[in-house]
Every structure is written in structure tokens, then in C-alpha cells.
Specification:
Helix 6 crosses helix 7. The chain has 8 helices and 11 strands.
Length: about 250
Amino acid sequence: MTEAGASSGGFAVVLAAAGSGTRFESGENSGRKQFMELGGRPLITYSLDAFASISEVRVVCVVAPAEELEAVGELVRSWSKGCPRAAGEDLDLSLVPGGQSRQESVRLGVEAIGETCEWILVHDAARPLIEPGDVRRLMVAVSEHGAAALGYPATDSVKREEAGMSEQGLDRSRTWSVQTPQGATAENFREAYSLAVEGEEYTDELALLEAAGIPARLVEGSRENIKVTLPGDEELARFFLARRDGAGGDD
């Protein structure tokens, strides 16, 4: 693969970790997902590992809850001690407080990055199983098309719901389940945020870009790139992680 962005500013990553992350209500992983451990390590460090392994990624901006900024910062600093790129200042790490919504938090991360990189990827820290190979293919698509996102073609039938009733079936051959990272040129992100309707909450970066008339390429990625959101998701993530590492069992 040709190094995307190697001669024109490289890639930055907004790592979104500012959500309330409080859907885990019981067990050892109750509380905020930012501090949840998976395989004996903080969840956020898996994403940091993946992006740090890609030389084209030059900046990682972690967006964390304002009230937890110090604690998340300590996690990131502890991780960076074992990362040669961060220790050697080849990878610029920053930490910014999030806003009242995911959309506002990502916007603050994008603003903090400014014009230091030509392309920006946004990734949910709650997706610890992102694969560097998928990120690289996404980066190529972003550099070629101006915007792109990881996902995969839907295999289930998808219905539009109204008051709890099935209202309309959508054409499954034209529907995708979309994941993160989602990315675009820094210029496209700035334009999309400038055109965003005040008070409108977009479900993800693709929705924001689409509202601004900026189309995005869909890139098929691993179905194991799950979002750890509900009780039980951590067990599934642990299973995928063990299989990836060849452990073949529980931690």
C-alpha cells in the first residue's frame, strides 16, 4: 500500500471517550467504560495500540469527560511509556475535555487538531477490536474520496418502525451496518460543522457529512469491530480478543 498522506500532512485521530459509559450496572466492570478492563488492560489502550502502529497516524487526540480528564490522562500517560512512537515524540498525543453530547465532543477534538493534519479519523474508544489493516484501507478511501467509513453489508432484514409496529422494510441489498473509524479531510469536517443546523444532533460523522452534502465511501471491515455498550458485550469482545491472540479460552 502507498503511504496515504505521507507527503501532505498525514492523519490525525479523534478518539472519542467522553460518553457517560454507564450502561454497565453490575459486576466488576460497572461504571464508566473508559475505565473498564478487557484482558487485564484498560479498554482505551487497545485503540491506542492500533493507531500507534500506523506510521501515517501522526496525532491522536483523546476526548474525555471533563470531570474525568485527569484520570483518563493518567491512563494515556501510563500507556505512552510503553509506546516507542509516543516516547520518541513521533506520535503527538493530546487530551481535551468533551462536551454535552458525542457530536460536541468530536467537534472539540477536531477543533483541537486544527490544521496539523490533512485527514482526520474519528473512532469510538468503546470499539477496542479495530484492526490496523482495516484502518489502512479506510485511510486510502478517505484520501481518495474525501470521506469514508468502515462497516459491512447488512445480513438481517431492516425495518422502519412506527409506534412499535413495522412500518416499512428497507432494501437489504442497499443497507450497511456502519462502524468507526469514520473519516474525512480536515477541510470537509470544518465545512460540515460550519453548516450543521443549530440544535440538530447527528447520529455519527457520516450523518453530519451527508447533511453538508459530502458523500462518504463505505469500506468493508471486520464484523468483530464491535462496540462495547451493553452488559454481555465485554464477554463477546473478550472471546474475539482471545481468538485473535490465539489464546483459545477465557482470560
